[in-house]
Amino acid sequence: MSLDLAFSSEQLAVGEAVAGFCRERVGGAPPAGDCPADWWQGLAELGVLELASPEAEGGALEATAAFEELGAVAFPGPVVEALIGGQVLRREERAAVARGALRVSVGTHDLAPFVPGCEVQLEVSGQSLFRAPLAAGFESLSSLDAEPVARGVRTREERLERSRAGLDLGRLLLAAYLVGAARRVVALAADHARTRTQFGRPIGDFQAVAHPLADVYIGVASAETLTHAAACEWDERRDEGEGPSPGLAAAAWLAAREAALEACHVAHQVMGAQGMTLEGPLYPLSRRIRQRASHAIGTATARESMVARLDARVGESLG
Amino acid sequence: MEFDWSPQDEAHREELRRFLDETLPEDWETISRDGPGSDAQAGFSREFCARMAERGWLTQHWPAAYGGSDAPPWRHAIVGEELWAIGEPRGPQYMNVNWIGPAIMEFGTEEQKAQHLPRISRGEVIWCQGFSEPEAGSDLVALRTRARREGDAYVVDGSKIWTSYAQHADFCILLVRTDPEAGRHKGISVLLVPMRTEGITVREIPSVVGERYFHEVFFDAVRVPVSCRLGPENEGWNVVTHALQYERVGAARYARAALTLDRLAERARERGWLEDPHVAERLGHARTLVEAARVLTYRVIDQRAHGKPPSTDTQLARVAGTDADLAVGELALELFGQEGLAYGSFADANFRLAMTAGVAVGATEVQLNLIAARHLELPRE
Amino acid sequence: MDFELDGEQQAILDSVDVLLSLRAGPERAIALAAKGELDHDLARALREAGFLSLATEVGPLEAALLVERAARAAAVLDVGARALVAPALLREVPDVPVALVHADGRGPVRHAAFAGVLLVADGAVARLVRVEPGSLAPVRSGYGDPLGFVPEALRRSGEALGAGSGERLLRWWRLALALELSGASTAALATTVAYLKQRRQFGRAIGSFQAVQHRLARCAIRTEASRWLALEAAHHGAPGERVAVAAAHAADTAAQVFRETHQLSGAIGFTREHDLHVFSMRLQSLRLELGGSTAHARAITAERWAEGAP
Amino acid sequence: MRFRFSEPEERFRREVRSFLADHRDLDGYFRQGQRWPAVKGLFQEMGARGWLSLAWPEEDGGAAGSPALEYLLWDEVAYARAARNPLSAGIVARTLIRHGTAEQKRRYLPPIRSGDLHFALGYSEPEAGSDLASLRCRAERHGEEYVVDGHKCWQSYAQDMDCLWLLCRTGEPGGRSEGLSLLIVDLDAPGVGRRDLPILDGEQLNEIRLDAVRVPVSRRVGPEGGAWKIMGEALADERHIQFPPGRVHRDVEELHAWCRNRRLDADAGVRRELSALAVVALQVEMMALRVLDAMQRGHDATALAAANKVLHTEACQRIARTALEWEGPAALLEDARPALLWRQSMWETVGGGTSEIMRGIVAKRALGLSGRA
Fold first, then answer.
1. Domains, chain C
2. Residue C124 reports pLDDT greater than 70
3. What is the pLDDT of residue B358?
4. Does C307 touch chain B (CB under 8 A)?
């Protein structure tokens, strides 16, 4: 069998189920703040919260199909973190995560998003994940007027096994989420450019509007395929029984991040003041993109792994 | 050609800084966190502008006849730099001082001058500008808000959008169509409308930038005396283009960007980030954009100081200012990562303010069109 | 503060422009490039008119104006080094071509093959090396200025010019670069704008497409700013941060102007029969000198924000 | 979903790779003009293996291979920097197969297949570069001959080619895409004048003047006035091999190796840009695979191919610029690899439909924006 870049019908079905759920619950734009409890429960019932875990039927491709849809509606809450938990937590904890009964936060050494709604608090540092709860008495902040964040002192309790697999999946799913969100951003901006008239014609008639949009479309489309390739790679390695290595997931994360941020930049430019209101469809997306792009997983390790990848390829091609 | 400040200018800047040290309250950072339109900052502006006026600084660049002291444009530019850099304690009043007042001087009747100029000059009045409409943003001439003549009043129907400061404003400088049959630039008039007139309602559009930043203003059979019209009927377009020439570089965005960048670099140094050459490069490049915006703005002020008519240098300066502002805002967010997203944090506050830079007052695209047509003399279609 | 030329400056520039319009320009640059020659005639004419000693006799700003104008006129000459940099370091301005050399540099050096004087930046000091003009090996180059190799031994020899001279050389060198970059960018843009006004595609002038207009407008903003930043730095005596800002801005501008002018001119821009390459190829070499935009940008940060910065 | 090629396809890739071991860095990719006899030799060897006619129908002497095989072949050749896919075996042959007369097929296909006969592309004119519909070169019918007058330019390597694949106007002057026809013109025919245009990448472009050149009507390919449609089809056939990502991977890897040799890769700024370029190279590959996937499914790949060209060529420019910046003035020496990469990459966002045209296609087809003004 040669190359085949389409989702399988099972994967499409996962995506469609999630899309339907989002249409029904989220509607136009998600509210600010954390994920409402019934939405979270809904995700659990759909099986989204256990995708790619050792117990799950679906792997990274199914999860990718689902997360692109979540991104498209800027779905709130620590969804990526739940699936990271599905890789690194103990079996009974994983089951609780899958049921929606246990929520996971993944943060930096002093910042933890979604606390206190999250019972398990993980800290990411390079290629390692630590169980590291915040001490009581943390400071509550809000991130871009929307997501709750806590700042405080952590105590590292243990380094988690399968940290790399968890972080790799995290990068991949962040990429999928960002790709889904960015596709929607480009669609919104293009729609605006087709319908909004200025100086007597649709603004999309102007190259100065159309060309930057074409550029971000290209960036998002290539990041999307790279994300799919990374998901394939993740699944193949899982099936082969190897531990996932930092490969395409890091690339997908870097590419999707870049493409999504650029898409927001252009869309804000195209949509003008309409993109700055909390009522319009653009800002809830661009805010969430900005948050996910600033995820604690960070970019430094991913960048280093790209250089390492080159090292390996150059070694090969010169040898 | 020489690029030194005169000793008098230097002295004025020093004096102004001392004044700010004494005048700004300790919680100024908090007051200014949500931008000039916020309740706190607009409220404070009435107090602050009165004190600026006492010193004779609020409208020192105005002619003596209207309560100014004919100060050279460079002097007023220094005020702009110093105040914008710290977040504009004049609040919404920078608009009156920079261009609404001068427009009234240029086109107003004696009665209008007597009514408005002293109040602006004393720092006790807030204005908003009723230009954009849902279907007329950067393309202002597409506006539809209608003013019908009925006896010695106009009856205004329509709505304006993206109006900053509308909630606080005492007056609105309003663009209306008085002749719907006339071509795009013709048939537009300017009205000076008291906001407390019956039939005006204001709705805030919650915005990402800060509180009270955007509003919709609805006009429902609002009666405005003909005596409130600024300039001749149906020739409002001239009034506006003339007025906006003053406005274009009124906001010294680069000064704010420069200070933000300095603070950003200081934080980066404290954390040892300057050791990372990538960070050092990014900061350096951002500094070039800020400096470019400054020097291009100076060029515009210089032309005014020489009594020359406004040129496309104004557009060059504006785009450069926008770019600098955005670049610094983006850089702050990038360097601070997740930490920068916390509401009111250093990076967050700066980024939100910078975001509107390219959109406010004639989107960047319009400026670029003008540069292409007039500066490069490129052909139209 | 005054951005307008005063009477004397205007008079100087007027005669500089007349001289350059007679003796320089793209056509001459193309002819000189074919021979790999430096413009000795232009040097003589500038010297006889007293323009090469503007820095000492009038001031650095006036010398800076000359350097920028010469670059706009595609002068194939060490005018930046001779009229602006050398006077900042030497009591007597040499009567021979001057090449600026970095002791640690590996690459070819502009004008070295014709130089009689090398000014070498070597850490804390600058050194003066006298060479026989024509003694250094020329390097074939398609980048506007003739290049030459300066052997390692020469880079390390010569007479030290005293404490602080190394840093002084770098500052004025950066300034000269900024001015030359700014002049060449302005000319490259003007050449392209003129071409796109008359060149037609899809039934209309290419210059009438909005996307094209916006890209050119952005270049115009940058070239204007580059010029003023460099002139301002010259007026202030080339302070470290200002020259780094001017050079970084000018180098970034050059990169953008290069990309856009070539992209928008299409195939004609790549031929040697069109003037664009006279300016654009030189931009390419100038913007790489002294470590290029990254090095200038890092210098800004070091000058302005590093621990113990002024 | 599957991002791997089949085992037979991978086997073919290995075969190509081992064949290319002898031709690696032939440099025909960048400098065909200076390497022509050797590049022609390479094509002849490939011809002998049947690789120039890999996807042609069997009845025309081809192997009816899949697009994937062709993709793998030219991707490997590009990675080896050996050559670019020749015009003759590509759009010329495909067009002849579709529209050529029996005589034309008999005459031209065998020597094309064997790598012996090569074509220069005669599309662009001084006043019609990316806007081909406005071209002026005119072919006047006189009995069984056309008499051709016109001026073509920007022909790559015409000095070494045998024939010109000429687009000219047979209909009303001033019409746009209607009234254009394709003719095969011998480059040594009387009235054909060629002049070299010196260009910045050190390679040659040519201009060709046609002065009352007589071309038999039997050399017209396809119906009179029908060239526009034919050209579109030929272009569509080739989308998957136009911009092989191997070239970009090779550039990035070489840049990285070069940084390591010079110990530049300890610098954080350099590492950051290298990592970004590694990501971009993968994005380029993904876009190329999307084009191939669409071709395999028989979908219209116009917008994807336009996107691919923009992404690919802009990536090449970014890599080359980076190399120049890190190397400094030494990179400007005539034979320095960075200078070569850079000069070559400059041309690519202009030649073969500018990036602006490509963005216009993407905007229109993928986003529904006209982008005309």
1. 166-306 (1.20.140.10)
2. yes
3. 46
4. yes
- Beta-carbon separation of D153 and C259 below 8 A: no
Q: If you classify domain B248-375 with CATH, what class do you get?
A: mainly alpha
Which residues 6+ apart lie within 8 Å of D285 measured at CB?
A: D245, D248, D249
Residues of C in contact with A207 (CB under 8 A): 209-212
Pick the CATH number of B7-125 from 1.10.10.10, 3.10.20.580, 1.10.540.10, 3.40.50.300: 1.10.540.10
Q: Domain B129-233 falls in which CATH fold? A: Butyryl-CoA Dehydrogenase, subunit A; domain 2 (2.40.110)
Closest partner residue to A229 (CB to CB) among D3, D68, D307 is D3
Catalytic residues of D, by residue number, are 238
Mean pLDDT for A20-40 is 87
Least Cα distance to D19 among D55, D46, D40 occurs for D46
**Chains adjacent to D (≥3 CB pairs closer than 8 angstroms):** A, B, C
CB atoms inside a 10 Å sphere around CB C75: 28
Q: How far apart are CA B129 and CA B214, in angstroms?
A: 12
Q: Strand A120-125 to strand A104-107: parallel, antiparallel, or no bridges (unpaired)?
A: parallel
Cα separation of the two ends of chain B: 39
What are D70-94's pLDDT values in tens digits? 999 999 999 998 998 999 999 999 9
- pLDDT tens digit string along A146-204? 788 898 999 999 999 999 999 999 999 999 999 999 999 999 999 999 998 887 888 88
**C20, C294, C248, C270: which is closest to C142 by C-alpha?**
C270
The answer to whether A3 contacts D257, with C-beta atoms less than 8 Å apart, is: no
pLDDT above 60 for A5 = yes
Sign, CA torsion B62/B63/B69/B74: positive
**Chain pair A-C, CB pairs under 8 angstroms:** 12
Question: What is the fold of A163-318?
Answer: Butyryl-CoA Dehydrogenase, subunit A; domain 3 (1.20.140)
Which residue, among C204, C305, C307, would best test binding to B if mutated, counting the most B CBs under 10 Å from its CB?
A: C305
Residue D91 has phi, psi (to 5 degrees) of: -65, -30
- The domains of chain B are located at 7-125, 129-233, 248-375
Chain A residue numbers with beta carbons less than 8 Å from the beta carbon of C214 are: 208
Please give the model's pTM, rounded to 2 decimal places.
Answer: 0.88
- Does A276 touch chain B if contact means CB atoms closer than 8 Å? yes
Question: Which chain D positions have a beta carbon within 8 Å of A225's beta carbon?
Answer: 286-287, 289-290
- Indicate the DSSP class of residue B141: G
Cβ C212–A211 below 8 Å, yes or no? Answer: no
